[in-house]
Amino acid sequence: MTTRGQTQQFDKALFKASVEKHLVTTYAKTPETADSRSWYLAVGKALAEISTGSLLETEKQIAEQNVRSVNYLSLEFLIGRLTGNNLISMGLYEEVSAAVEELGLNLTDLLEEERDPALGNGGLGRLAACFMDSLAAQEYPAVGYGLHYEYGLFSQSFEGGHQVEVPDAWRGIEGYPWEVVRPELGQTVGLFGSVETYTDKAGTSCRRWVPAMTVEGVAWDLPIVGYDNKSVYPLRLWECRSPAPFNLARFNDGDYVGAQYGQLEAGNVTKVLYPNDNHDQGKTLRLMQQYFHCACSVADILRRHFAAGNKIEDLAKLESIQLNDTHPTIAIPELMRILIDEHKLGWDAAWAISSKVFAYTNHTLLPEALERWSESLIADMLPRHMEIIFEINHRFMTLVEEKWPGNNEIKRKLSIIEEGQQRMVRMANLCVVSTYAVNGVAALHSELVKRDLFPEFNELFPGRLHNVTNGVTPRRWLKFCNPGLTELVNEKIGTEWPAKLEQLSGLAKFAEDKKFQKRYLAVKKDNKQRFADWVQDNMGIELDTNAIFDVQIKRLHEYKRQHLNLLHILSLYHRLLNEPTFDMHPRVFIFAAKAAPGYALAKDIIFAINKVADKVNNDPRLGGKLKVVFVPDYRVSLAEIIIPAADVSEQISTAGLEASGTGNMKLALNGALTIGTMDGANVEIREEVGDENIFIFGLLVDEVLKQKEEGHDPYRYYHADSLLRASLDLLNTDEFTPGNPGQLSAIRQNLLDGGDPYLVLADFADYVKAHEKIDAEYRDQATWARKTILNTALVGKFSSDRSIRDYVNNIWKLKAVSVK
Ligand code: H2P
């Protein structure tokens, strides 16, 4: 029996039998002994059985058609829980809900048992997950390649307000029900050793790498289920294991390997995801992770290529490899090595292929976040790759000399190798030189990539630099996470929008409709209640759903300026206590964020927000007007309950520094009004929703640059603005840390004596003004309703389906394959 939208044959009795079978045979529980978690695992396994069949069938049909596909290489895929989302894509949500009910279970409760696979830090990893969802939904042939970390991003708790990190064993003891191991796809990866010259049969002198050791790559596939179709694409995650026993005689040769043995335990390579502290620290194990990921993935791409009967010369015709940031850059010299050393192509022939296979996405302009690896580290671990990088650079420098004869300054600037005490390899430069397309992730960001980051490259390679504005999947970020709004939208514009988000514009005509406004606001209220209940149950804080829910959820970083938000909260606290005429609508400030374990100031900011929260949440003098909630352990499943409950979306980075943002899109889609700077995709959100439906403040990119050039003087703002002064000075008292003054002063110190590198003080006054406007406008509920409805209606552009079509049309040139 198949119902509408259902893409899989579904027989309720058979499904129930399968769940019960897995409960007993896979998880060794009986219906009597099973707890909720065992039932969730059994349901997950029963569903995975269906999707694995479809995955194999999709692989087969795509291989038979031998069409062009994209390979998305990313060190991070922040997929979130799969069960609920896959049920929606399979069109089986109601059916499975009914089936488990007959087993005496509740689907919503079961879904809560799934741990988030936290295989990413933030936006970059979440984007990769949305892109896989959109590739499968639109049936553009694709494979996602990532790493099978044993531990994902740490889980976070707070002790006395301080962040504490605990390892995240996301698979649990039983393993993750959705993953399936593919032993036949295993790869062997070399490391260290040397390069030797030898003479081949034809008498030609050749180079080859003789690794000192090898490790084994094991492939695990997670199913990416296409929405409302029969395609299931693999997200292939590589796990590193040691071959038993370490078998190369050379392993015992050189002491240099022996000396590093501790780090070389193969099992360590994919042990844990590196937290993103936006600071390259040249960690050996991180480079090893990157190479392991690339070597396994490139080998698997070639395996598929040859298995379909293709020749190496046709590689660029059939495969594109998208590098998600510079993290998988080492795939470039890896492919060159294979083409030259193993397939015996000459340099030019190899380059002609390789440079048409790779494309690169840049996600940041922050100089400290642009990866650089020391030449000596690469030369030691991957000696042949280092040779190839030198050769790429040598030929590139010839090109630069032709374009700008005798200009050594330009050469120094563009060179892949950075000269200095320790020579460094600039991975972004390697990417731009070696790929056929480079893209930024929002219009403004892509302009800045052209204008400020790579201007000379843009001259040298006209047409190589593109923009693809990010997007988010409407399936997870509206249909799944906001059932109330989904129902309302379905009623007004039908049910096709999850695959055609631009149709949401059909809601605009109801923006003034009083009845619709009421219902829309009622949905928001319900979502706020759902979140408030969660906060009550998990944190013991009571929230009033009549208050404005003001949300900032994202990685903790100075450039994202959670401390600007904090200063505003301090200013409200100060005014409530000191300005007798000051009035404000009750506000709940909601934060969620992890700080990289080594990032001291980020951790100080978390501590300060927690301390301020302790105080204001319990201060009767504030009359309940001000609440602050820092939700611990931010993750996808938390975002799914916070976002639908948000009234205000904080997107307040220093202009020019947030490449795009994607939380801004999710929040606007769910009806939160943005308070934001002219940065990243905020600029395009404003274009779509209109200036009157967004609260823009702060310096523009060029004003930021000018102010930095002229020398930003934080004390000038401090002395000129008494509210700012009062707010900052609160950090020096013991107001929030009774008996311990100075515990929060590091932030104040950074902003005043540390030079305020992210211009927090310069934007403070304008930010406060924008918040006052929000306060006033929220009080007029009809106006607010119109604005929030228009936000949902007018952000259809930010579907990741559109982003993927941009990539497909402008970069990858793929044709959809409809799986039968
Ligand atoms: C980063 C950028 C965001 C961007 C995202 C996806 C690295 O994410 O900073 O501006 O939207 O990539 O392109 P994040 O800061 O969340 O880790």
TrEMBL record:
PROSITE patterns (UniProt xref): PHOSPHORYLASE (PS00102)
GO cellular component: cytoplasm
Pfam families referenced in this protein's UniProt entry, alphabetically: Phosphorylase
Catalytically driven reaction(s): [(1->4)-alpha-D-glucosyl](n) + phosphate = [(1->4)-alpha-D-glucosyl](n-1) + alpha-D-glucose 1-phosphate
Cofactor(s) needed: pyridoxal 5'-phosphate
A single GO molecular function term of this UniProt record: pyridoxal phosphate binding
GO biological process: glycogen catabolic process
Residue(s) carrying N6-(pyridoxal phosphate)lysine: K666
Keyword Ligase: no
Top EC category: transferase
Role description: Phosphorylase is an important allosteric enzyme in carbohydrate metabolism. Enzymes from different sources differ in their regulatory mechanisms and in their natural substrates. However, all known phosphorylases share catalytic and structural properties. Allosteric enzyme that catalyzes the rate-limiting step in glycogen catabolism, the phosphorolytic cleavage of glycogen to produce glucose-1-phosphate, and plays a central role in maintaining cellular and organismal glucose homeostasis.
Family: Belongs to the glycogen phosphorylase family.
Protein name, as recorded: Alpha-1,4 glucan phosphorylase
